[in-house]
Specification:
Blueprint: H1 6-10, H2 44-47, H3 60-72, E1 78-82, H4 89-100, H5 121-125, E2 132-136, H6 143-151, E3 163-168, H7 175-186, E4 192-198, H8 206-209, E5 213-216, H9 222-236, H10 242-251, H11 256-266, H12 278-285, H13 290-302, H14 305-317, H15 322-342, H16 351-363, H17 366-385, H18 389-403, H19 409-417, H20 442-454, H21 464-473, H22 477-486, E6 487-493, E7 496-501, H23 509-521, E8 526-529, H24 538-555, H25 557-565, H26 593-602
Length: 603
């Protein structure tokens, strides 16, 4: 039954037929073998393809589940393998096909222990086994192709235990092909097994997914991928710096195949016998010098605008992509936040950059780092859409450095509670940094709070009605009309007003109201707008209260009886009893201006 009976005796499935040019292509012993210059070169991604489940790096959860399923005999009839490119979907499918049809002198049933080649392993690996069909859905998308395939499902296997159908990129099948597959997939013959692989799991119909046992292959983290690359370099007899391998592992974005392809490219960057440096790999990948990018991040934190712009232009001149630079800045911002919470060891950065980032994170609050992340993320999207990415990056750096001297919301709140001047500045704490991007002098930061503490407001306004009364007393008719019609009050306290602007609100209402209140009260007022929902303007409240009073008047027994006795009588106008308004100051009498407005509006 075996194509290669020597395999069970020697443990080497290629002992009789392979030559030295295909030494480790399909699972041979991993020994360093120099490549002959005139030999057909086998790329690393094929040469070191896993030959057992234990060789699959980063997929321990899936291997554990399959091992338990095979050990207990609970083997599904259909498997769905999904994940990003290069994480091992096709490799896992071939290993599953071998495991389902595994048979040797000592093992007669399915097994995930593939350390020793069985009778059918060689043929399955080479893609020539009659009972294992590996198909590409991208080239067989139609329903006719699927029906032709399903016609063969009912026939029993010729040599192996199961007929195994491996369909790669299954999401490429048409709707008709999926529908044709449904019934067979739900009730397949006992001798048929299906293994699907896809990178676009969302494009697979739910009806198909519900009939499969799904395995999500995870991205391989750089911490796991880097030792794997080191092992391959030792087996290849190649010399490469650890930092260069770390760069390759990060650039692969979790894909083992991508990392091996990049390693293949990196190993030819240096002369024979020389070590491949991190600088060479960085140039190969088109990455910016990470130490220079970290210095740029420090310039942003410190608000050093000239230094930041010059650092970026230097990186850009060396060929660094602006999007990549902003991506590195985002990574450092995230690392600083993680280091602040979990320590520098949790940042996934080399030791020296991790310590520098941790030092930066210790100087900033969590809120500051969060705001910086938001600014950088917005800038990253702008750079990708901008016609000139370099100019967009420079404008983003200007914005970062300018924001470094702006105090955070928590600092503004404290200053507001202390009665400090928010418009003229004050001590800039809680911002991204304390650099030179237009901040406040030390003397001003010390003297102004004292001046504000000594300044007492001339008029105390305890409610929003007091504000309206003060506007009426000052006879600013235009401002009063705008405030009554467009201000939907959300919150009020001494020195601060928050309101929701009504439609068609004048654009200068906030500035005008703030300036008038400062002039009349001798105090700075912080006036903010936000979308609250549900609030009403003074005019809307007045109309509502008037309607409610009119309804109460109509419900009065005397008025109701009067209207019954005189049919056709209507209440054309009435003046509800005015609400008392607190006086703003002891010697500030109320004027008739409000009555004049009410009379005009009622008419």
């Amino acid at each position: 039954m075996s194509d290669h009976p020597e395999s069970s005796e020697t443990g080497d499935p290629f002992a009789t037929e392979r030559d030295e040019n295909t030494e480790d292509m399909f699972g041979g012993p991993l020994v360093p073998t120099p490549v002959k210059k005139d030999a057909a070169y086998t790329v690393l991604a094929r040469k070191y393809r896993p030959r057992t489940f234990e060789d699959l790096i980063g997929q321990e959860a899936m291997v554990r589940t399959l091992s338990n399923a095979f050990a207990t005999g609970r083997i599904a009839h259909a498997f769905m393998l999904t994940g990003v490119r290069g994480v091992g979907k096709t490799t896992t499918a071939r290993l599953l096909a071998r495991a389902l049809n595994y048979e040797s002198d000592t093992m007669k049933g399915p097994s995930v222990d593939l350390s020793t080649f069985g009778y059918h392993c060689q043929a399955i690996i080479e893609g020539r086994h009659i009972d294992v069909l590996e198909l590409d859905a991208a080239s067989r998308t139609g329903v006719d192709s699927m029906r032709e395939l399903l016609e063969s499902v009912r026939y029993a296997p010729v040599e192996a235990r199961y007929k195994v159908y491996v369909i790669d990129e299954v999401h490429m099948l048409s709707t008709g092909a999926f529908n044709a597959l449904l019934k067979t997939l739900e009730e397949p013959p006992p001798h048929a097994k299906f293994i699907f692989a896809t990178t676009e799991i969302r494009k697979v119909p739910v009806t198909i997914l519900s009939r499969c046992q799904r395995f999500d292959l995870r991205r391989v983290e750089p911490e796991t991928l880097t030792p794997h690359l080191e092992k391959i370099c030792r087996l290849e007899g190649a010399q490469i710096e650890p930092d260069a391998l770390a760069l390759i592992a990060r650039a692969a974005e979790g894909s083992v195949r991508d990392s091996l392809s990049l390693l293949d490219q990196a190993l030819v960057q240096a002369e024979e016998g020389q070590s491949v440096s991190a600088e060479v790999v960085r140039d190969m990948l088109g990455l910016a010098d990470r130490s220079a990018t970290l210095s740029l991040f420090e310039n942003i934190i410190s608000g050093q605008m000239p230094e930041a712009l010059l650092a970026f232009r230097t990186l850009y001149g060396f060929g660094a992509d602006p999007s990549q630079i902003m991506g590195d800045l985002l990574e450092y911002c995230h690392a600083a936040s993680v280091a602040k919470v979990l320590g520098s060891e949790a940042t996934r950065l080399p030791k020296e950059p991790a310590q520098r980032v941790a030092a930066l994170g210790a100087q900033l609050s969590a809120g500051t780092l969060s705001r910086l992340w938001t600014l950088m993320l917005k800038a990253f999207e702008e750079i990708r859409r901008a016609p000139d990415p370099a100019a967009a990056t420079e404008m983003a750096l200007v914005r970062f450095c300018y924001a470094s001297d702006l105090p955070g919301p928590e600092t503004l709140l404290k200053r507001l509670q202390n009665g400090e001047n928010l418009l003229d500045g004050g001590p800039s704490g809680g911002g991204i940094g304390g650099g030179s991007g237009g901040g406040i002098s030390a003397q001003g930061a010390v003297m102004r709070p004292q001046a504000y503490a000594n300044a007492q407001p001339q008029i105390q306004l305890n409610t929003f009605d007091d504000v309206l009364a003060l506007i009426a007393e000052k006879r600013d008719i235009g401002l009063r009309v705008d405030v009554e019609r467009y201000v939907k009050l959300i919150s009020f306290r001494q020195g601060a007003i928050t309101f929701e602007p009504a439609p068609h609100t004048p654009i200068d209402l906030v500035r005008k109201l703030s300036a008038r209140l400062k002039e009349w009260t001798g105090q700075r007022w912080l006036i903010a707008t936000e979308g609250g929902g549900g609030a009403e303007t003074y005019r809307e409240r007045e109309i509502r209260e008037k309607a409610e009073a009119l309804q109460r008047l109509r419900n009065d027994p005397f008025i109701s009886g009067l209207m019954t006795a005189f049919p056709g009588v209507e209440i054309l106008s009435f003046r509800p009893k005015p609400k008392p308004v607190a006086a703003t100051t002891p010697d500030m009498p109320m004027t008739e201006n409000r009555d004049e407005f009410s009379e005009k509006d009622d008419d």
